[in-house]
Amino acid sequence: MYLNAHPERSRDGGRNEKHARLRLAYENQMLEAQGGRAASVDMEAGGFVGQQQIMRVNKSPATGRVVSVVVVAEHKTYKNGERVSVVGEIKVNIERLQADIYRAPTDDEREAFKASQKAKKKATPKFKQINPTIEQAEKLQAQFNAEAEEENEGRNYKKTAGEVAEMTQAQYSGKYKDYKQLLKYKGCKIRIYGSGWNRVGAVVVLTDKPQKDYPATVFEPAQDFTA
Asked: What's CA 140's distance to the chain center, in Å?
């Protein structure tokens, strides 16, 4: 890849490329002598990396080899400006790990994993995408602004309030595509524009699409509706 990007380094009869290939072969032999690389192992969801069970496997479209896996584990993240510990999905790059870090699941573990994934999918709430009326959007925008104002208490920085944004589908998909977000909120998918760490996102109303009211759950007191 480097020589393709720098053709001037290839004007030596192939000496640089030959050197790189031999060096890579040597490094791979050394790694194989130490147990091999995890990237050469055919992993599957339900197997284990260390003590963590694999939820999903990500492979390179170019080589077909595993490059990373997704597991559920405790990790650090930021919430309301503070670093906290949470349990959730994280991606683990396995290309530099040794092959013996992976353990394939037993038949019982594989069946239990399939059953748990099926149950999880069934229990996951279905979110409907709603294009609201102006009145409904303004009501929800006021709710978002009030929630942000409440969160602002005790913060070093304050989120500024947002205002409803009216636009066409073409504008939302084109000009504003880098600032848009589809928010899962209390059973609905809500188009948001311009959301950031220092501002409340604007609820979007598509002016050239049918509009309808949100379900009543959107305006009920906060509960854990999100997946």
From this structure: 26
Task: Using alpha carbons, select from 147, 140, 143 the residue that is nearest to residue 203.
Answer: 140
Side chain identity at residue 161, one-letter code: A
> What are the backbone angles phi and psi of residue 197, rounded to the nearest 5°?
-65, -20
**Spans of all domains in the chain:** 2-33, 38-123, 128-219
At 77-91, the pLDDT tens digits run 776 667 788 888 899
In tens, the pLDDT along 8-60 reads: 776 676 787 888 888 877 777 766 665 556 667 889 999 999 899 999 999 88
The DSSP line for the chain is -HHHH-GGGGTTTTHHHHHHHHHHHHHHHHHHHTT-BGGGS---TT-EETTEEEEEEEE-TTT--EEEEEEEEEEEEEETTEEEEEEEEEEEE-TTSBGGGEEPPPHHHHHHHHHHHHHHHHHSPPPEE--B-HHHHHHHHHHHHHHHHHHHTT-SS-PBP---EEE-HHHHHTTTGGGEEEEEETTEEEEEES-BTTBPPEEEEETTS--BPPPGGGGSSP-----
Where residue 119 falls (left for φ over 0; alpha for ψ -120 to 50; beta otherwise) is alpha
By CB atoms closer than 10 A (0-12, 13-18, 19+), residue 47 is buried
Backbone angles phi, psi at 156, to 5 degrees: -75, -25
Beta bridge partners of 66: 59
Output the pTM of the full model: 0.51
